[in-house]
Structure formats: C-alpha cells, structure tokens
Amino acid sequence: MTSTTNQPADADLAHFERARHGDFAAFEALVARLQGRVFGLARRITGQQQDAEDVVQQTFLSVIEHIDDFRAESSVATWILRIAANHALKILRKRRGLPTVPLDAGADDDSYATIPHPDFIAQWRDNPEDLAQQAETKRLLESSLAELDEKYRIVFVLRDVEGLSIKETAELVGISEANVKVRLLRARLLLREKLTRTLGDESQRMFPSHDHG
User: Fold this and answer.
1) Disulfide engineering: 74 pairs with which of 55, 78, 152, 167, CB 3.0-4.6 Å?
2) Backbone dihedral angles phi then psi of residue 92, each to the nearest 5 degrees
C-alpha cells in the first residue's frame, strides 16, 4: 500500500516544477494551495490583517523572482514559508519607531534561569487532546498567542506552528539557537498558563512554592 504521508509535498513540488518551466496555471494552483498558510503565518507574526495580505503578495512575487533559486533542500512549502517569514519580519523591523521590541533585543537575557515559574497550575477539566479539536479552544489559543510578547510569539509560530527547524528559526530571527530554545520554552509555558486559567479545574489548582532556598 502506498503511503499518503508525502502526497501534499509531492503535489506542491509537481506544481512548482511545472511553474518553473513557465506553466502559469501550475503557479496559480501552487498559490491556491499555500496562500492560506502564508497568510496565517504572516497574520500571527505581524498581528495585522493588512500587513499579512501585503506579505502574501510580496511572498509570491518573490517566489516568481527567485524560482530558480530553489534547491530542494527543504520542501516547497517550507521554502515559501521562509520567504513569507522574512517579509513579515521586515515589516516588524520597520515598525521599530512604534512600541515594539526588536527581535534580537534582550537576547543576552534569554536563559533558562530567567524563565518564571507558572502561577496557575491545575488539571484541565477535559482531556487536552479532545480540547485541542474544539473550535473554541483553537480560538482561545489564537487569542493567547496574540497576547504573547512579540519575540516569544514569533519563535513559537515559526517553530511550533509552521515547523521550521531551530536553526532556520534562529537564522530568520537573528538570534542564537540557544536563545531560540529558551524563547520557545518560555512561549510554551506562557501559553500553557494562559490556557489553564480558562480550561483548568479551579478545584484542583495547586499553589507551587517559588522558594529556591
């Protein structure tokens, strides 16, 4: 029996190769397959719909301009998402005059010793796997993600949502791989606590001691 695991990637590559040889219909099909993921990535990084729409346009223009640069060292989708992330990060960097934090700011302060202990610990009322499939939980996760500090949100989106490697994430954000790992852990803990405050069973809440003495 033939595995279906790689079918989406194989289809992307087939469309891409035809597009590389001048088949515009194949390029349009590739855009249709991936523009939702590109928009979602850009929306989570920039936090604004208009910026995300601009990223989608710029991304696929860049794909056309650099289509011969693809070397199949990653999947087509990953390559395109990397381009999208770069465009989204450029938008953030242009906003430095606004109340945002440069992506590499405070990198020297990112260490496991600086990660805070969660204040709200409790068993969830329902099975986490069941909750993950519920639309309300997904909306809660999106809103919680939007509330994260920018530097943690971006690392979480690139690594855990879009599946880029630690190395790729570090290169895109401009920090070390060690900093990526710390920021990722912090993002996961913060998200877990935010979700637990809504989904946790208050009657089973634990109150951990923060005394390290």
Assistant:
1) 78
2) -65, -40
Is-contact 41 162, C-beta < 8 A?
yes
Rounded to 5 degrees, φ, ψ at 61 are -65, -40
Q: How many CB atoms lie within 10 A of CB 20?
A: 14
Q: Is the pTM of this model over 0.90?
A: no
Instruction: Tell me the pLDDT tens digit for each residue of 87-130.
Output: 998 888 887 665 444 455 555 555 545 545 544 444 434 444 45
Mean pLDDT of 189-201: 71
How far is residue 1's CA from residue 21's CA, in Å, rounded to a whole number? 32
Residues 129 and 164 both lie in one domain: yes
Last residue of a domain, one of 46, 63, 94: 94
Backbone φ, ψ for residue 121 (5° rounding): -120, 125
Q: How far apart are CA 48 and CA 11, in angstroms?
A: 30
Number of domains in the chain: 2
Tell me which residue of 141, 116, 127 sits closest to 198, measured CA to CA.
141
Domain containing 113 equals 107-204
The torsion angles phi and psi of 196, rounded to 5 degrees, stand at: -65, -35
In a domain, 99, yes or no: no
